[in-house]
Amino acid sequence: MRKRSSLLSLLVVASCFLAFGQGEAIYLTNPSFEDMPRHSKEPVGWYDCGGDLFPGESPPDVQPSGEFSVTKPANHGGTYLGMVVRDNDTWESVSQKLSRPLKRGQCYEFSLDLARSELYISLSRANNEQANYIRPAKLRIWAGFGNCDKQYLLDETGLINKHQWMQYNFKFEPIADYTYITLEAFYETPTLFPYNGNVLVDNASPIQPIPCNEPVPEEPTAPEPAEPDIAKAEPPKPPAPKPQQAKPQQPAAPAQATPRAPQPQPEPEKTIAGVKRSEMAKGLSIRLDKLYFEADSSRIQKESFDFLDEVYGFLADNEDVVIEIGGHTNGLPPDDYCDRLSTARAKAVADYLATKGISRKRLQYKGYGKRQPVASNKTPYGRRKNQRVEIKILEMGEGDG
What's the whole-model pTM score? Predict the structure, then answer.
């Protein structure tokens, strides 16, 4: 009897230890955004961040209210959250306190259902005329220590292009014991100009602790498309008979034409990574997507030289433009290593442009290390986005940009 009791005690202790080691799920208040459908009022349980960040701007909406012509049915429950980005450089976000803190070093999985409304008609903030807020935007997930406190970007989506509901899956590892979460609609990045767009949000899952080596699908998922009804499919029509061809006549001798000299084609406008001068403004950051370095090195790979020559061509044609070259790394290595590598890579780009003939006075460089992530460092996709070089426009001639 004692042996059975001892064995039972060991099993209880072991099960408690496993439960403790895995951690408990973190729950959101009103995760399905249920409330009375209405515009300019955040769902119950959620805090509007836009009013604090952009005084005078309205809160997000509980949809489908029929307001702004949004009528898409909810994917879960009766209502969902509708958020917009605007052409006056303002955007909407909501926040709330978590049921328990996120733990530093613990990995989590989380999912949301997201879509884009076909119609979202309101007034443009730029010209006060009617506009349809339908351009694709993205969703960012932030963690912090108070409502709307964006201390750390947990993860972000790509652009929400589809009108149908899609489940987006996230995996992240906080770097501190955060107590609040913020959901934010944001523009396509890099953002050349603010625009009018929307994001619909529904059915937030619990934030579930998982082992850090457990994979989470990076791509959004949707129901399988319906199979075509073969019984109702029409049989293919037989091909129409070809018309009989008449006997070809002997062609007449072609008239002699005076050859025309080819017209010279205008040279294409010089750009930086596809961004034209007319699309630039002071402070704009442009990511150099086709710039590659050898692993753990500042040595530029040969396939990047043509791309850097395009940057040189733009700077040579626009002598009033002064730039900063900023290096960034992912968040995995130590701080001092990230600072050294990002600075060395930024300097390597500046050196290349200088050797081509661009004045050093127009080339500044800086290593930001891992202090400015644009995506989660917990997925290969996010780390690739964070490890980047950007060009920031510091000065342009008056009347430009």
Answer: 0.54
